[in-house]
Amino acid sequence: xxxxxxxxxxxxxxxxxxxxxxxxxxxxxxxxxxxxxxxxxxxxxxxxxxxxxxxxxxxxxxxxxxxxxxxxxxxxxxxxxxxxxxxxxxxxxxxxxxxxxxxxxxxxxxxxxxxxxxxxxxxxxxxxxxxxxxxxxxxxxxxxxxxxxxxxxxxxxxxxxxxxxxxxxxxxxxxxxxxxxxxxxxxxxxxxxxxxxxxxxxxxxxxxxxxxxxxxxxxxxxxxxxxxxxxxxxxxxxxxxxxxxxxxxxxxxxxxxxxxxxxxxxxxxxxxxxxxxxxxxxxxxxxxxxxxxxxxxxxxxxxxxxxxxxxxxxxxxxxxxxxxxxxxxxxxxxxxxxxxxxxxxxxxxxxxxxxxxxxxxxxxxxxxxxxxxxxxxxxxxxxxxxxxxxxxxxxxxxxxxxxxxxxxxxxxxxxxxxxxxxxxxxxxxxxxxxxxxxxxxxxxxxxxxxxxxxxxxxxxxxxxxxxxxxxxxxxxxxxxxxxxxxxxxxxxxxxxxxxxxxxxxxxxxxxxxxxxxxxxxxxxxxxxxxxxxxxxxxxxxxxxxxxxxxxxxxxxxxxxxxxxxxxxxxxxxxxxxxxxxxxxxxxxxxxxxxxxxxxxxxxxxxxxxxxxxxxxxxxxxxxxxxxxxxxxxxxxxxxxxxxxxxxxxxxxxxxxxxxxxxxxxxxxxxxxxxxxxxxxxxxxxxxxxxxxxxxxxxxxxxxxxxxxxxxxxxxxxxxxxxxxxxxxxxxxxxxxxxxxxxxxx
Length: 745
Description:
745 residues; alpha+beta; Rossmann fold; 15% helix
């Protein structure tokens, strides 16, 4: 039970600076001549000066942070209209969109959760559907019974009209009588509502929990109650920075009425003997096959958490005696429980992680047994099943899977997998074996089952095969690229077989480099629309990610954050030097925390890229902590309230590194109005300052999803298809590819 919020996985920001002295946000470029009548609207310059430890920093577009200002709304809408018209004029865009739809609608998309008794909950999006629905299936070959159509779930009036409803998460009760389902409107994760449905009938019980972002619901024995987490209800006029504070875990009894009256059982000001900081995030999990509940506390971003244990039977007690067994200093990242055993994923003296075991009745890390010792591989996940603990490893960008038996003398075996790539593992402590979703850079996901009795891995057929799942003419390369300081950085390159290395190939390189998150192999048939046009997809596994464990993460955060974008630059230079592409055919992309990477890459080396796509990117890192979701990330990235923090945040800020009269590449900034993670003003301010500063004459566009949130989270298939068509046609236009030049009106 990891206390890290799963929804933080797509967000990271900030840090590093070497030079001292006066750092000023340049404003001279803001006074350039107005755009032509056919161009985007020019944003007024209204500079505000901040003084950080004697350094004056000028912000020309601070007023855009007030997204409720009608003038700001009007400017964003005009920019959006201009972008839509510009993209619509690209000659090949319509045909590209049609091909993407054809590829995307070739097969249903399925995820599955096993239940006792050879039953499954199936989340499935049919080829012509826009959002996934939830089904129940008895047996692998049984028929699917519809349980939840998210678009038919009635949300509260304040959440209606924000966009299409989508399933954010679901959790079946222990006896599979009910399922708790998070429904998010229009990608607005913070407004997720948790609804409960009866599995046998599909009936909505009427139990509703609001502000259930990151709720992580866990059912109690007897299927009569569940524990969950939720955001606090803010008073009118409360600052935005309070929104994600005082998170707590509650217990809800079915049909008990108003969930706002549910008792708080863990978290801020919940247990008198346990002090939890307002900005910390607690979670409580009560797992099947155990009499113990685990409470975890995260500071919001760091991989090390604090953990407590107590009997499930005591959860509702006012004076519950939670026993602390792991402090932040113990470097424990995750805890799972099976029977009376606690299994801990720890990086204490093991930067690539190890697995420990201790007794839940009297946990003691000092005497904990090492079940999986540290090695050259990174231990990434632990999952308990009935027959053993399943342990995922990351080895050179590829996942491996171990099974460790329970009992006093655990035995470890490696499971041979039919696909070399990445693993998505789902287990149930009451069910033997595991469901294993496998995919690679060149083959679509297939859901397998591992049977520990026969030691066989077989295709469940839960995910139907599609006609474009295994393209025979696409291949992947795994390369190590020396970065600016000699460190070897993994680079994955996916392209057509026998592709000429003549520097002319349209190339899109992605990078993230944050939160110790690794970009594992994946394949989506829609990528064929890019490969068919000669395109290359490259993935830079920059420092800050988790490819080599916590040591790789530490090498790309705080004062070392510049390694992230400099690794990206080095990988881009490699692609050019080895004739995969050229600067006139190379584009970079990143999103969320990856906005730091892509923003600083094209501001530091504008000559290396023809274009860039910045999706919901964190760009003005000096102002991030003034936002609701900036607060939980202060422990990871620091604060402008310290001098070292300010210097580091300034160096990360692409907004502060745009220089006037500089030939920047073409850039498309993308945001969703309902984004709770990176406020839309980041992309608005970047658009304004870059449009005013660039001397290249290349397009600078702001693409806005008015019924969307943080990138593709909670979005529909149609939104994703159109976004891909817009992105790729924009790049092919900028690369000068015939058939993708704008039509003249």
